[in-house]
Amino acid sequence: MNPITVVLVMAVVAAFYMAWNIGANDVANAMGTSVGSGALTLMGAVVLAGIFEFAGAALVGTQVTETIRKGIVEVTLFEPGGAFGEDGPLILAIGMLSALLAAGLWLQLATMAGLPVSTTHSIVGAVIGFALIAIGPTAVDWGTVGQIVASWVISPALGGIIAAAMFLIILHGILQKDDPIVATRRLGPHLVALVVFLLVLSFIYKALKNVVKDPHWGMVLGSAALLALLAFLLARLWLSPIRAREDKPFNFVEKVFGRLQIVTACFVAFAHGANDVANAVGPLAAVVQIHAIGELPAKVPVPFWILVLGGAGIVIGLATWGYKVIATIGKKIIELTPTRGFSAEFGAAVTVLIASRLGMPVSTTHTLVGAVVGVGLARGLAALNLRVVAKIVNSWLATLPVAAGLSALLFVILRALLT
Amino acid sequence: MRTIHQLFGKSPFVLLVEHTRRVHRTVELIRPLFEAFLAEDWDKCEVLYGKISKREHKADLEKNKIRDQLPKSMFLPVDRGDVLKYLKEQDSIADAAEDVAVLITIRKTPCPEELKPLVLDFVDQVILTSEELVKAGSVLTELVESRFGGPEVERVLAMVANVNDQEWEADKRQRVLSRAIMEREGELDAISLVFWMRIIATLGEIANHAENTGDTLRMMLARG
Known about the structure:
The structure holds two protein chains of two kinds. By secondary structure, chain A is mostly helical. Helix content of chain A is 79%, strand content 0%. The model of chain A has no long low-confidence stretch (mean pLDDT 88). Chain B has helices at residues 12-28, 30-38, 42-68, 80-106, 116-137, 140-145, 151-182, 190-223; one strand at residues 74-75.
């Protein structure tokens, strides 16, 4: 077997493992609250998360995958005739494989140690790591890396701002009204319509492209608005059978938002799939194309089947292990009541989708943490433990060098073995 | 990455309401205690002192539990200092109840027959003040839901005003009783007089601390 085939086989396995890991550990944050509040059964959560993760990965996963595949490393340096002669593309493939293995290994260790480590940060650090050892600082596109790191700071902040804004809308529009029950019946369907509108908007462009060559923006907005209207009407029907006990209006509000939160949970799953699938298949996409055409993948788009593979890996991770994590998380975060959960998930999903559109690999979990902190600082939570934020920043600072170092080490070993 | 749940501290408000109940359960025993005291059933007084002391201790444990889970890194929807002050004042209610029980059990202080209705009247008014506080305090968890705003606030403020009114009533009865006791200067021995004054003052403290607790609640709402 020639070396590039060996690299390909290993990369497929490693990417699948990463996708499995993402599905097993990260999806729980999106669905846990809905299971915890009893709005969704565990089975229902797994099915919905599976559908929306897969849809997000397959439909909107391209941009971030592109960034990981060829945005971080200056791939032109690995062209045949470049620094490594004819071996250039193979070296790049080995590097991408090392990055995948290193990120997977680090995630495994960190999970065992209970550290809050981000999949995204691990893979970005790992890709930088092998590039540094293979060529040196010039091999890294520092402009893109700078943007990525900036997005890691901006995304939790933006998630927090949007979540806080949503919470304030619910607070002033419902919770502080004279009759919260009437206010919920009125405002609830509007919120569902808003979520559906944003969700549809993020993938309809691509879906329409298959039917019409270059869809007019009016057509995109129009179809999103139409589906949002449909959602509005369905939400009215869906919420009307919920009865209120007159003496406890807040119980009614929370019950309704328990259902509405299913919609935002799907939104988060969709955004998560769109952004995080790249962590598994970004490096794989590079290896696959080097294997297929023996050249650098700079110009060819990411094949659809790779995104499908990543999406499938996430779903399998969810089905084989993730459901347990959802059940555990669900029990632990009952303090996040549905109105607050709705706000936080909305803020996180919108932010992650924007980042995905811009090709920025952000951490979905960090964004969700930022969103929860946003709701907390808007004084929406009974008690917010700010110490966790420091813990996250620390693990953030540790992840980059550790993943990079591990990746560099694996790269040196694999290169010696395979060339 | 499973970090989200670590962001949530346990709600201190749920436990504060629990503490309110425990404190009131301590105060409630003051009524049977005084019945036994006025009937000069000293054995029963001892038993009731034991119960009160046990309940006060339970309230203390609850208080410590709440304090332990409110480190400085915990961000609350209201001022953390107000929450701690509320807790402290509320706990003082139970402390005062226990102090009364101590005063009653360390000396067999007699009570002139004709004053007994005045004493029970005062005791009931003190317990009523604490009861009104329980009503206001129990709404805390719902206030978290509406972020200490909205129509709920008016309701709670009215309840707090009620605590103030009841405390004022208690003050008036305290004065009437104190005066009636002093009018029996020759009848009662000096030590009994001193003890009566202390018992009455400490009973008054129960109502005073209930009022202060209510006022702290008002402060939380004013800043919300």
